[in-house]
Amino acid sequence: MLSIHLFTEPLVQSKGLEIPEYDGRDRVHALSAKNYKSIMKKYDVMVIYYHKNVDGNRSAMKQFQIEELALEVVLDDLDDEDIGFGLVDEKKDTAVAKKLGLDEVESIYIFAENEIIEYDGELAADTLVEFLYDVIEEPVEIIDNERELKGFHNNDEVIKLVGYFKSERSPHFIEYDDAAEEFHPFVKFFATFDPKIAKKLKLKMNEVDFYEPFMEEPVTIPGKPYIESELVEYIEQHDRPTLRKLEPHSMYEIWEDDIDGEHIVAFAEEDDPDGFEFLEILKEVARENTDNPNLSIIWIDPDDFPLLVPYWEKTFRIDLSSPQIGVVDVEDADSVWMEMDDQDDMPTSDELEQWIDDVLSGKIDPDDDDDDEDDDDDDDDDDDDDDDDDDDDDDDDDDDDDDDDDDDDDDDDDDDDDDE
């Protein structure tokens, strides 16, 4: 897991360019068996960092103190939101961890409205703050006007649902809202009560549309009106999009959702002309193959992960200054990358689709590198055996020579005896 990066750059708010300073208030609490219940009752949302024990390790302790102080500064911006932050030590607070259901060290858990959300994203303060703002929002966002409808359509990088209901008191909306709580804030739920907005969304009363990332047209969930369990089941069956973007707040969750131990990964900077062109080709291929359950492509924009770019370039032996697509083994990071004949011209959608077909059929496989290495090792072993055989032959020759010398010496001795 990545180390924690706690940036203390000021957020652009009404304070202008005022640099936040630690005001002395303790907002980060060390939770124990005696105090955790009373502290958690003080906040609407409680964020808990379940961390390793740092006792006896001076450098680790110093780093942990820096992280805690940085959190104090960052949480100053969240002071009005009634969000608390607690620390649970894996060694000292095992009872608390067990009571709260914390089972993964160096993980962040968010307790909000009787829900426990495990944060599977980058442990960076700015990313965490943005995620917490999403957590405290309502699970369902209501679309009331044209401006909000435009915003809904502009957000095409995530899984989202939208439904049309009579009112907030409608039993069908209540079922929809309950389903939204199960996936909040990872899946975006929208609703409208306005018949004009519903008409533009092509929605009928109590109907819900499911939008896969980067797809031009939604899919209407069958079987309206729905109950909560039906909506939950449908989303769980369709929560792996054909093309999905690696986001800082969900990077670990996405990476763990592999297919047979592999990921097809595409690197492209959206703000770069070549990256934008390649991404559009990638979207076209994804749309044409959206019904293939075995195809899931992860798009990574290097601009979103500047600290990881050197690591990726070294691990995968690629240059991320230009678009790349490859297949990666999630266990040992072995990978095979599509060869671009001309960096000035992106591959066509047909060429890209053919390459992806070769990956899915097993014709292109990152494990083939392991086979090559094994062959090399076998060749080395054969060479060693040949060398050993040569050495044995040399030793035999030497032994024969020694025997001949001994025979000659014996003959000389016999001649001397005869002379005497």
TrEMBL record:
Positions of the UniProt region annotated as Disordered: 359-420
Keyword Iron: no
MF term (GO), any: calcium ion binding
GO CC annotation, single: Z disc
Chief location: other
Subcellular location: Sarcoplasmic reticulum lumen
Superkingdom in the source lineage: Eukaryota
Keywords: Calcium, Glycoprotein, Muscle protein, Sarcoplasmic reticulum, Signal
Segments of skewed composition (Acidic residues): 366-420
GO annotation terms (biological process): regulation of skeletal muscle contraction by regulation of release of sequestered calcium ion
Function: Calsequestrin is a high-capacity, moderate affinity, calcium-binding protein and thus acts as an internal calcium store in muscle.
Family listed: Belongs to the calsequestrin family.
Name by which UniProt lists this protein: Calsequestrin
Species per Swiss-Prot/TrEMBL record: Seriola dumerili
